[in-house]
Amino acid sequence: MINHPLSNLLSQTKFLENIAEQHGTPTYVYSKRRLEENISRLSSAISQSFTKHQIYYAVKANSNIQIIRTLKNEFNDLGCDCSSPGELFAASKAGLNMSDCVYTGNYESLEDLQIAYDSGAEINLDDLNSFKRLKTIGIPDYISFRLNPGKGHGQFKGIITGGKNSKFGIPKETIVEAYNVAKSSGVKKFGLQCHAGSSTLDAKTFSDITKQILKSAREIEDNLGQKLEKISIGSGFGIPYRDEEEPLDLEQLFQNTKRTFKDFYGEDNSSWPTLCIEPGRILVADTGFILTRVTGIKSSYKEFVGLDAGMETLMRPALYGAFHRVQKIGHIDENDTIIYDITGRICENTDRISEGYKMPEMKEGELCAIMDSGAYGYSMSHNFNTRPRSSEVLVDEEEVSLIRKRETIEELFRGCDV
Ligand SMILES: Cc1ncc(COP(=O)(O)O)c(C=O)c1O
């Protein structure tokens, strides 16, 4: 059995068989308890170091309304970071005040900007041209801009969002100009945001990025002749996807951040800007797995396990080579393992959940769990090969609630009857 916060749930074979029976497979299964633990752990770590702070849950990681609601119920001060009109809708439907939310778009259309402006959420802009487009709609009292600090970080090339190859943010060399234009156009208060990459487990990386953000903050403040209200260090907080990885030390991370704030702003923390974070993965990834059934076993040039969950259910491995552990449900003979390629039913050879994965021998009809699928699982799932998207359930001890129905084939063609 893998070393995982949901190990206890994974060992409840009958319980999981019942979920599969009742809701079908594949189904995303989330643990309410783990969601609550994650938000409590994070809010406790940040509040130990920062009195003025704000957590904006990054809705892109998982936009299920019941998931957002569970986080909000456990931590009432939660805001949301939204990057599309749909994510604003999800946050609002989950009961969040839009004034507690931030809209972080990129290459935003006028329509997107209008929706963000009308929503009342704070707006975090990706470029000076974004501001110029926004100006044709209206001038909010407060805005922030997204900094590209010139370098980024992340577990894979595809999730590094800072640096010379990044499509995001304003280069540190030119960001001051954006603030000057915004101020002269009537914006009164400002923040600075930066999200330079994702899935990083080393606290030191965040110290380096924070120093860079505060350097830019100082330059902006000196030029504007006024203090920034908020500094968002974005997120990128990783989780252990492998048995041997250690979790990110959150207390250490915020202590380091506090030290950097002290160096820049002095001892008196009442004069510091509010520290904002936009966590997605660290709140939801390890709260969910995909419960899936083996549909076909094949011995070819390699040994294949075919599941009813493929790249349409979990895009991350095909998209950027992400690794997810796969746990067999039921009797496990640790001495009887096989090296498999684990695939789905999609007509693409990139359809792999894992390659060269050592696990107990699998048989058709058996169940397994694709771990850590709570973040960027359902939210990245799609309909390729005209496969309807799966259902989602929330487990609260013995209770299982359906929190999203499985799509039907008919629903996929709703828009075609024109
Ligand atoms: C602007 C922004 N903030 C926050 C996040 C969430 O990142 P993570 O899932 O690493 O916490 C992302 C992810 O892409 C992002 O683009």
Give a topology summary.
Layout: H1 7-10, H2 13-23, E1 27-31, H3 32-49, E2 53-58, H4 65-74, E3 79-82, H5 85-93, E4 101-104, H6 110-119, E5 122-125, H7 128-135, E6 142-148, E7 153-154, E8 170-171, H8 175-184, E9 189-193, E10 197-198, H9 203-224, E11 230-232, H10 250-265, E12 274-277, H11 281-284, E13 288-299, E14 303-307, H12 316-320, E15 326-328, E16 337-343, E17 352-360, E18 367-370, E19 391-396, E20 399-404, H13 409-412
Parallel strand pairs: 1-19, 2-3, 2-12, 3-4, 4-5, 5-6, 6-8, 6-9, 7-10, 9-11, 11-12, 14-16
Antiparallel strand pairs: 1-13, 13-14, 13-18, 15-18, 16-17, 19-20
Bound molecules: pyridoxal-5'-phosphate.
Helical region count? 13
CATH names the topology of the largest domain as TIM Barrel
- Please count the beta strands (DSSP E, at least 2 residues each): 20
Query: Low-confidence segments, ≥5 residues, pLDDT <50?
Result: none
Mean pLDDT: 97
Ions, cofactors and other bound molecules: pyridoxal-5'-phosphate
Strand content: 15-25%
